[in-house]
Design goal:
This protein is an alpha/beta fold and about 350 residues long. It has twelve helices and 16 strands. The structure holds flavin-adenine dinucleotide.
Length: about 350
């Protein structure tokens, strides 16, 4: 008899795991709180995904057809373009609306069972349950994420990073004439609420970008927000029982890397191997828990810690000014920094 794996959370990690389990003929159910397709807070540039994982998940051909390919990124400091550099690898610009929808369809087509529109009780997760429910909001949110798609934006490059005051925002083209504008803000710093994405950009001293977004046409239904705790590995004592955590629920790399989606897909897909052994009754749950948290999740800890160490420099006025100066002088070791935070 083959045991069933239940996955709580149908984002990238949960769906990648579900697909990889179904490819091994393991019964799998994904419980997702929302429905598909839906917009999610994300910069929507997919950076550093292992081509073998993309191929195994059926994503390579789909991305080649659907995604916008970015080759360079332009950096701005308070509205002024400070430097531009080539990306060490091409980056895919793709909306979460399309990506999550595609993966959900693929999981269902492989015979996976998808239960949508009901929030699972994570505290009851136990043997056979995987928690892929993304970052927990936590009692005291550390970050606020906001995103919106707009048409008619006139950006300077197809991928832009704007550094503000205790905030940054990415602008990336995700479809023909559709740009995603997504910002990360320190809620204690922008204080006053209201005004949506434009208001938050203005308060974070990203006035030029705010004006450009105000002048563009918002795509209806694409505004999304979220709150997040600190980045980095989560404490080992999870607020749920015997389940196994994957993806952002286990640890989250800061968004400026554009690597969180790739990591979620790779971690979800990699967790299928030890879980398949449990499903076939050839190992016990505790062994699988350790295999996932040490071997699978462990592979991503170093890059996450390095990105967490670099993150404050982007947000602090002195750090951001220094970055702009070094970047303009072409002295930033881009390839080295990319390697440290993406492998
Ligand atoms: C502001 C911001 C910008 C970002 N920009 C980028 C970027 O440009 N590139 C990049 O690669 N990464 C980016 N990321 C990171 C990326 O979005 C995440 O790393 C990735 O989505 C993690 O995938 P996941 O599957 O772990 O979690 P998620 O994608 O968050 O999925 C979790 C799922 O679980 C569901 N869920 C939650 N609770 C329950 C429950 N109780 N029951 C059932 N379902 C539940 C949610 O509805 C959700 O669908 C960004 C993140 C933020 C916050």
């Amino acid at each position: 008899m083959t045991r069933e794996v239940r996955i709580f959370g149908g984002g990238l990690a949960g769906l990648a795991l579900g697909i990889a389990l179904r490819q091994r003929d393991i019964p799998a159910t994904v419980h997702e709180a929302l429905a598909y397709p839906r917009h999610r807070v994300c910069g929507e540039f997919l950076c550093g995904l292992d081509p073998a994982v993309a191929e195994a998940l059926g994503l390579s051909a789909w991305l080649a057809e659907r995604a916008t390919v970015h080759h360079s990124v332009a950096w701005f400091r308070r509205g002024r373009r400070v430097f531009e550099h080539a990306l060490p690898q091409p980056v895919a610009g793709v909306s979460r609306f399309a990506l999550d929808g595609f993966l959900a369809g693929r999981f269902a087509a492989l015979g996976g069972s998808l239960v949508v529109g009901a929030r699972a009780d994570l505290a009851r997760a136990g043997e056979g349950d995987v928690v892929a429910a993304g970052s927990p909001p936590g009692p005291k949110p550390r970050w606020l994420g906001l995103k919106q798609h707009v048409r008619g934006l006139l950006p300077h490059a197809d991928l832009e990073m704007h550094l503000g005051n205790r905030a940054y925002a990415g602008v990336s083209r995700v479809e023909e004439n559709v740009w995603n504008v997504c910002g990360l803000f320190d809620p204690s710093h922008i204080r006053r609420a209201g005004g949506g994405l434009v208001g938050a950009l203005e308060r974070a001293e990203l006035g030029a970008l705010a004006a450009a977004v105000r002048a563009a046409q918002p795509v209806e239904g694409t505004l999304a927000s979220c709150t997040l705790p600190r980045f980095g590995p989560r404490p080992q004592t999870m607020p749920f029982g015997g389940g196994i955590a994957v993806g952002d629920r286990s640890s989250m790399i800061p968004p400026f890397t554009g690597h969180g989606m790739a990591m979620a897909l790779e971690r979800g897909a990699a967790a299928a191997e030890p879980l398949a052994r449990w499903a076939a009754e050839s190992t016990d749950w505790e062994t699988v828990r350790h295999a996932v948290s040490d071997d699978v999740e462990g592979r991503f800890r170093r890059r996450t810690r390095i990105a967490c160490a670099l993150h404050p420099a982007l947000l602090h006025p002195i750090g951001a000014t220094l970055l702009a100066l070094i970047g303009r002088a072409r002295l930033l070791p881009i390839r080295h920094l990319y390697q440290l935070t993406h492998s």
